[in-house]
């Protein structure tokens, strides 16, 4: 799907605040409210906008302990391990990567001990050959 410059601007505003009123978006984009509503509906229908979510406050996020967990899999276990990772609420995201590891999981927990338990759980999964974890000390850029 080809997006216009106005579509891209609209997506940028919605990414910052998905609850921004349509009238405010229209004013910022120099379009009518009806046109903006039509664009949003089209972007949803075409699957560009897949849904809306909650962005946690910096204060709440700063209280969490986060880590990158690099995971090496045994052969043909990607599907099974991905399903098991999906079932763990602490797993925020999982990426397939190139290099000596197969996956990177981003984990968030309330404490170091909770994080340790989650990492142990991942390491004990059938199909996980090894893991390497790095605790995130601070976030420099988050877009």
Give the DSSP E fraction (strand runs of 2 or more residues).
15-25%
What spatial form do the alpha-carbon principal axes imply? elongated
The name of the CATH topology of the largest domain is Alpha-Beta Plaits
| Average pLDDT for all residues | 94
Describe the overall structure.
With 143 residues, this protein is an alpha+beta fold. The chain contains 6 helices and 4 strands. Strand 2 and strand 3 form a beta hairpin. Helix 2 packs across helix 3.
List keywords for this structure.
transcription regulation, Arc Repressor Mutant, subunit A, Transcriptional regulator protein, alpha+beta, 4-stranded antiparallel sheet, single chain, DNA-binding, 4 strands, 2 domains, 6 helices, 143 residues, Alpha-Beta Plaits
């Amino acid at each position: 799907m080809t997006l216009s410059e106005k579509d891209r601007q609209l997506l940028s505003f919605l990414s910052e605040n998905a609850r921004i009123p349509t009238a405010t978006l229209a004013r910022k984009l120099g379009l009518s409210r009806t046109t903006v509503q039509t664009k949003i509906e089209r972007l949803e229908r075409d699957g560009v906008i897949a849904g809306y979510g909650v962005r946690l406050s910096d204060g709440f996020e700063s209280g969490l302990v986060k880590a990158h967990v690099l995971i090496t899999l045994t052969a043909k276990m990607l599907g099974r391990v991905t399903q098991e990772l999906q079932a763990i609420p602490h797993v925020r995201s999982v990426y397939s990567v190139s290099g000596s590891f197969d996956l990177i999981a981003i984990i968030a927990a309330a404490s170091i001990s909770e994080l340790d338990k989650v990492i142990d759980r991942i390491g004990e999964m059938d199909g996980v050959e090894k893991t390497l974890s790095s605790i995130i000390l601070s976030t420099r850029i988050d877009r």
